[in-house]
Design brief:
Helix content: 40-55%
Low-confidence stretches: 7-11, 109-118, 845-855
Strand content: 15-25%
Number of helices: 30
Number of strands: 25
Largest sheet: 8 strands, mixed
Structural class: alpha/beta
Radius of gyration: 36 Å
Strand order of the largest sheet: 8-23-22-21-9-18-20-19
Shape: elongated
Distance between the termini: 58 Å
């Protein structure tokens, strides 16, 4: 059966690309000629199939039950049952309908989440060319095992992580790993770097072979590959979002308050000898009154309106709750390519042999690019910078770019006659030059001059993060028009062409706008740290330090959590390192958003509280994201942040009004029940009061929001919410008690008149105070939108008229006399004035706090 199967490599061992082929073969107990079918079968049973674990799916029934068991859902469900049991079938049905719609929407949204892992599995190779029993043959990719030898050609998707044994002009597009679209030259030989981005001698599953051919020894398969780790991250269950945590906390708070109040009221009523059934109905009516029946509807409508407004701002929302989370975001992590930069290489400048700017190298290079006919990203940039470069030039012959020699050339007739123009990697071109251009003449070029030219290349990379190619030429003195490698010697060094991926014109302004809104930006890139550092400086971020993937690999989680406080830019990152940085920021209390567009970004998109992708992103990234940007620009994110905060502010208005109003009214009823010989309000009147008040707040999702409400990241603060409800609720209760005293001791009201008068006062104070506490400003200076005004005033009119209509008897109303009604009006006016005076104290402890920054 061959050599024994090796033990799984411990995670602490050095990466496989840092070992030689012989060392790797020894560790895998195999040879460089491949495995036999029998050996492969043994290894397949040991390592498992070269595939990813299927995503865990949550059934519909389980998803619905889980949501029903949320505290807020349980409260509303009990409230609906009680309403129906006490004769309020309409109210109970409304609550059930609202709850069903809310749970249904959430369940449908969650059903799409598992699609991310499916898209990822569809993007890997289906077959591979594997050496078995001494011959290469095509076989299903899930049968590839560690120790196999595979052959990869241009256009193939690499099926596993492996070590290059041999290559011929082989390049791979590792955008799936690094996010960078530029081909990576792959050659045999170990690399000491810890980061996969530096592993020139390794192939990685999911990358695409672009040119040439390579033979590789498979080291890791399936979930052990870097690609597999991304798939595993997508299969993990997502944690509760900030919005879900806030709703759960509010539900628990409401449940505790309701239970306590019901127990106290029921116990007291029984103690005073009141009828048990009437006391029970009164207590459960209080419970229904405290339940925020319309919160799911207000939340859904507000978030849906926010989603529509965000769509107009070129943001498609996949998960409604993410709108709130975006508004709470304190740190945005993003790749650089396509977001901060245009992802289009541009010619920065041409540089002559003397080290100063010179247009000649760029012009000659553009001639070679146009006449050579093989347009890469750099050639496209050359042509765009000098579109008229070929005027007066004609092609006579060409020698195509050779990936082994890393240069190519064209033979062209120009103003000075036929000339051979060569361009390519600086190391390759400079080594073939014997002279360099100086003005209209040339001078000899020896080892010292060549070293100086290459030093300039390194300086451009290290100082400015620029990529370079070298350009050389020589007059053509042959009759033949077919140049080859033997002609690319004795060249004249013309200079360098330096290229950049410049920042978008809007990037710096968008970053400044996010910073002003309290959102920090971190660059998490797979590109060279030098390039990342230059970009960070150009867009206004701190660029004094850039951590690389190899730096991060040596840091513990605690150490990394400290480093993220002071470092804004990271380069040469592997996918798992991006998600690790996201978690490090979260450990510092940050609400983290991640903007990415590649397979390599999927784990970080899943780890972040808010995943953002773009319309041109890979299917995996779009599936893993919560929102899709139709315009790949940070300005769109800044717009989305404002919209998220506006949406949250309107949701909070309802919570604030509902908590303070219901708490005040229910407290008043509970206190009054201790001293009055009759119920202060009948159960049906309580339910009607609650229904009309909820209707009055239906217009909240359509209301305007003041600028200060969207100025900083915000999340719910339950302690502050309790304080707000305490200030405004106690104020309401004080005036309720004044009404009680006046009705009993001044007007000597009958039970029916007392209950009706307090119903009118309660409805007037609850609804009219909406216009006071909906804004920090003066109500007359910050008017509500028509929708809120219409629903609030409409509900108020119904409440004021109903006790004086024929149907009043159905609710036990006894219309109060005119003098008593006038007294109610005076008390309501005094209450509103006091509410306006005290609201600043309540807003000083507003039920919102700024999200903590990671610093």
């Amino acid at each position: 059966m061959g050599a024994p199967v090796p033990a799984t490599r411990p995670k602490s061992a050095p990466p496989f690309w840092s070992r030689t082929a012989d060392e790797t073969c020894a560790a895998l107990a195999c040879s460089q000629s491949g495995l036999s079918a029998a050996e492969a079968a043994v290894r397949l049973s040991h390592y498992g199939a070269n595939s990813d674990a299927p995503a865990k799916r949550v059934g519909i029934v389980r998803a619905v039950v889980r949501r029903l068991l949320e505290p807020l859902s349980l409260i509303l469900l009990v409230a609906a049952i009680v309403s129906i049991a006490t004769g309020d079938g309409i109210g109970g049905s409304i609550i059930v309908s609202i709850l069903a719609v809310s749970i249904g929407l959430d369940t449908v949204q969650e059903g799409h989440a598992g699609h991310a892992a499916d898209v990822l599995r569809q993007s890997v190779a289906l077959t591979a060319e594997v050496s078995r029993d001494g011959a290469y043959r095509q076989m299903p990719v899930d049968g590839v095992v560690p120790g196999d030898v595979i052959r990869v050609r241009a256009g193939d998707i690499i099926p596993a992580d492996g070590l290059v044994l041999d290559s011929t002009a082989f390049t791979a597009n590792e955008a799936a790993l690094t996010g960078e679209p530029y081909p990576v030259d792959k050659r045999a030989g170990p690399v000491a770097g810890l980061s996969a981005n530096q592993a020139r001698g390794a192939l990685f599953r999911g990358a695409v072979a672009q040119t040439g051919e390579a033979i590789a020894l498979v080291v890791n398969t399936g979930r052990a590959t870097i690609f597999g780790a991304a798939a595993a991250a997508l299969a993990d269950a997502a944690g509760a979002s900030p919005f879900e945590k806030d709703m759960r906390a509010y539900g628990l708070f409401t449940a505790r308050l309701t239970m306590a109040l019901v127990v106290v009221v029921l116990t007291t009523s029984v103690f005073f000898g009141r009828p048990l059934l009437q006391s029970l109905l009164f207590a459960v009516a209080l419970a229904v009154g405290l339940a925020p029946e319309l919160l799911p509807m207000i939340t859904t409508v507000t978030l849906s309106r926010g989603a529509m407004r965000m769509a107009r701002r070129k943001v498609i929302v996949k998960r409604l709750a993410a709108i709130h989370d975006l508004g709470a975001m304190t740190v945005l992590c993003t790749d650089k390519t396509g977001t901060l930069t245009s992802a289009e290489i541009t010619l920065d400048r041409g540089i002559g042999c003397a080290g100063v700017e010179d247009p000649r190298p760029a012009q000659l290079a553009a001639v070679a690019a146009v006449l050579g006919g093989d347009r890469g990203a750099l050639d496209t940039a050359l042509v765009a910078a000098t579109p008229d470069a070929t005027v007066g030039w004609t092609l006579r012959g060409r020698h195509a770019f050779d990936f082994t020699r890393r240069l190519g050339s064209v033979l062209a007739d120009g103003p000075d006659g036929p000339i051979l123009i060569a361009k390519g990697a600086p190391e390759a071109v400079v080594a073939l030059c014997t002279t360099s251009r100086q003005g209209s003449g040339t001078i000899a070029m020896g080892d010292t001059e060549r070293a100086s030219a290459l030093a300039q290349v390194r300086a451009l990379a290290d100082r400015d993060g620029l990529r370079t190619i070298a350009v050389a030429s020589r007059p053509w003195d042959k009759a033949s028009c077919d140049p080859d490698a033997t002609d690319e010697v004795g060249l004249i060094f013309e200079g360098l062409c330096a290229f950049a991926d410049p920042p978008k014109p809007t990037a710096a302004a968008a970053i400044a706008r996010l910073a002003a809104a309290g959102v920090q930006l971190k660059i998490l890139s797979g590109d060279d740290p030098v390039v990342v550092k230059r970009l960070a400086g150009l867009v206004g971020l701190r660029a004094d330090r850039v951590l690389s993937g190899s730096d991060i690999a040596q840091l513990s989680d605690d150490a990394l959590a400290v480093q993220v406080r002071s470092v804004d830019a990271y380069g040469r990152l592997a996918p798992d390192q991006k998600s690790r940085l996201v978690r490090a920021l979260q450990s510092r209390g940050a609400v983290v958003g991640y903007l990415g567009d590649g397979i390599n970004d999927a784990p970080a998109l899943k780890a972040a509280q808010i995943g953002l992708s773009v319309s041109g992103a890979t299917g995996v990234a779009q599936a893993a994201a919560d929102m899709i940007l139709l315009d790949q620009d940070l300005a769109v994110v800044a717009d989305g942040v404002e919209e998220g905060r506006r949406t949250f502010a309107n949701i909070l208005k309802y919570v604030r009004m509902e908590a303070s109003s219901n708490f005040g009214n229910m407290l008043s009823m509970a206190v009054a029940s201790l001293f009055l010989p009759f119920l202060p309000m009948l159960p049906t009147q309580i339910l009607l009061n609650n229904l009309l008040y909820d209707v009055s707040e239906v217009g909240i999702p359509f209301d305007s929001v003041r600028p200060e409400a969207v100025a900083r990241p915000q999340v719910w603060d339950m302690h502050a919410l309790v304080r707000f409800a305490g200030v405004m609720g106690l104020l309401s209760s004080v005036f309720d008690l004044l009404i009680f005293a006046g009705l009993v001791f001044i007007f000597h009201a009958t039970p029916g008149a007392f209950q009706t008068a307090w119903f009118l006062e309660s409805m007037a104070t609850q609804i009219l105070v909406i216009f006071v506490i909906r804004t920090r400003g003066r109500p007359w200076a910050d008017l509500p939108r028509p929708a809120l005004a219409a629903t609030s005033l409409g509900a108020l009119v119904v409440a004021m008229i109903l006790p004086f209509t024929p149907v009043a008897v159905l609710f036990g109303f006894d219309p109060p006399p005119l003098l008593m009604t006038c007294g109610i009006v005076i008390v309501v006016a005094a209450y509103l004035a006091c509410a306006e005076l005290l609201k600043n104290a309540a807003f000083g402890a507003i039920a919102v706090r700024q999200s903590p920054a990671p610093r």
